[in-house]
Specification:
oxidoreductase, single chain, dioxygenase, globular, 9 strands, Intradiol_dOase_core, 4-stranded antiparallel β-sheet, 5-stranded mixed β-sheet, dioxygenase activity, Protocatechuate 3,4-Dioxygenase, subunit A, TAT_signal, alpha+beta
Amino acid sequence: MTDLNLQEPPHGHGLADDLPLIAAQVARRRALKWFAGAGTAALVAGCGGSDGDASASVDVVTGATPTPTATATPTPTATATPTPTATTGCVLDPTETNGPYPADGTNTSSGSTSNALTASGIVRSDIRSSFLGTTTVAGGVKLTLTLTVVNVNASCAPLAGYAVYIWCCDRSGNYSLYTAANESYLRGIQVTDANGQVTFTLVYPGCYSGRWPHIHFEVFSSLSTATSGRYAALVSQLAMPQAASTAVYADTTTYPSSASNLARITLSSDNVFGDNTAAQIAQQTPTITGSVSEGYTATALIGLAR
């Protein structure tokens, strides 16, 4: 039995018979070709693939909702807390002359001893009174002086256990054991504490002719070595501040000649301080507060290279 659905339509074998069939097949192929081309063009346009259609590409990108990019929160960097140091910015103190009145065993004196460093009673904080022969108290404006001894080779670390010997003239410009031969005031020695500090109570020194007002000091590595100035690690001087000196010397009854002597001298013309650098002078000049009536408090650094 023949399946009619599989039979080809009847046709002749002549050209006239084939022309309608050929025309129908050509039309069908053209239609298929058109549909295929249209579909490809639509696909390309939808993907933004045309180099010449830049606007289409941009529109596709901007038309979409962008996915936000998470911004990482920076982790804070911990800042280390620096270890505090006793002082900063110290310089090496210059070596200065100990002058003609040291009473440290390096010269002779007209007083009761040429070496106060070996005398009983020299280790003291308040040095306003004599401790050899008399108990006379030096007159003048009270001055409390704290010195901090530091090592310039170790970030200004304090030097504990060092002995500091100081001396200065009295309000009239005289030195005990020499020009004030019967007296031993305004001399003393102390040992630095854990902070490298020593504190002395004295009077504001006078200003004598030819010198800027000053305080002498010597530093020794220990109290046991402080038996002679020959063993000193440093011999130097402090330059008193001009403003405080001017205020103190305005009382010409207490300080009879200091104002006129100060008027004739400057730091630059002084034969001790005149050749020092600005940094050295700044360190050698005590920082001072107070008043003539209440007394003054002063502090200063002493820089050693250890």
